[in-house]
User: What shape does this take?
Amino acid sequence: MSNEADHIEGGGDKESEEGAQDRVRTNASPRRGASAPQASPPRFVSVDELLETAKGVNNMALAHEIMVNQSFQVKQSELPEGSLERRVKEIVHQAFWDFLEAQLKEDPPQYSHVIQQLAEIKETLLSFLLAGHGHIRSRIEEVLDLTLIQQQAEKRALDVGALSHFIIEMMGSLCAPCRDEAVSKLKEITDFVPLLKAIFSVLDLMKLDMANFAVNSIRPHLMQQSIEYERNKFQEFLDRQPNALDFTEKWLKDTLKDLRRASSVIASSDPPALLPANVHNQAYLRLLKWEHLSEPFPETVLMDQTRFQEMQQKTEQLVLLSSILLIVYTTTGEAISGLPGLMDKLKNTVHAMLADMHTPSFSLQETLVTTGEKLCMELSQCLSQHGYATLSTDNKNTLMGQISATIEPDNTVRQLMDSRVQSYLLATLESSQHKTPPPLPGGLTPICKELKELGVRFSCLVNFNKLVFSPFYQKILHKCYSSGGCTSTET
Assistant: This one.
């Protein structure tokens, strides 16, 4: 979905200048060229409406992240090392702890701020408790009775050592196993202020553990609620921005046009390829070939653009990897087919060489030359060790030349492997409802593990998006079929 900031257009007339703080003029699709038609004229939206929409989009993005990212975790935000913000934060925190220590060194000691910190610790410990922790709750309420602690402090009878010991014991009983060591180290700190500081540090980690536990616990129950939530939030956004499906509509229309063109040779009024389910799957597959720098991404998958881009890069890497391995196998023939571990060794070599292929400084041409040289050397060594003749100079030159030729997108081997990888990923979408993995096309066995993992990620992301946005896609395709003379509306 498009961010609201992309749709704000400042008015240049006197009225809009005077009312800038109260009203904002928005354009439904500013990313189009100046001559592109608009489905509806610009309308005025209040600042409150924009802020409300932005808040909804942020919440929807969080819910979406939890659902589609199985490894989603709440993490501590870290300010950059050496940054001004981090330095200021460190100075302020240190000043607080220095002030606290100075209060305790007064005669008599001042415990007002210590009691405030104990109150926060108590609240945090209680937040970790579940419904069945009644006994622990009573114990915390009893020992960390702030009224009693205040009275003990006034009478100089406050035993901070005993309170610290109790707090650490409670933390040990409530923390995740991964925090046992951190809690145990607290017992080694003898000075009260450094101990209090360390306690808060570990409690922050325990809060993260609790949040991540809650996310993992509720994820299975969130599916339907998340689908309805995202759909409703997007509908609210669509109500505010009527043109907010323009790029999605173009995406589906272009896919349908391509399928109609490819199916034009079939003597059928409604070939299977034009059924909505097939159009949807082909449309998602097109996202793995997207020109991200020049072509606007469909609004309904905009939150996942980075994921699709990562999958696109992984797909390109696997295509090139499988192309090189196929060239090696066909060039050397049966001589290497029975050698144990050789293909895995060659695969690891090529994979390491292509690991950074999408970084700005990467030179594919140089890398392919180096890869060809490395593979020739490894092949010769392995063949020699097993009593086979090493590669001849002609075979080496042929092998290196064919590997270097894969730099061209229209290279025959590269196109073949790309077609097979695309066919496999399409098959994962078509078979996902039946829970049966599709068969692996020929030549892809060396990358089967990576390809299957990619297929699972791809189909999970696509299927969730289908569940959320299928009503919007149905309306768009219904219009396309009606205008194109095709009446199929199955999903």
Remarks:
- The two ends are 22 Å apart (CA to CA).
- Strands lie at 23-26, 43-46.
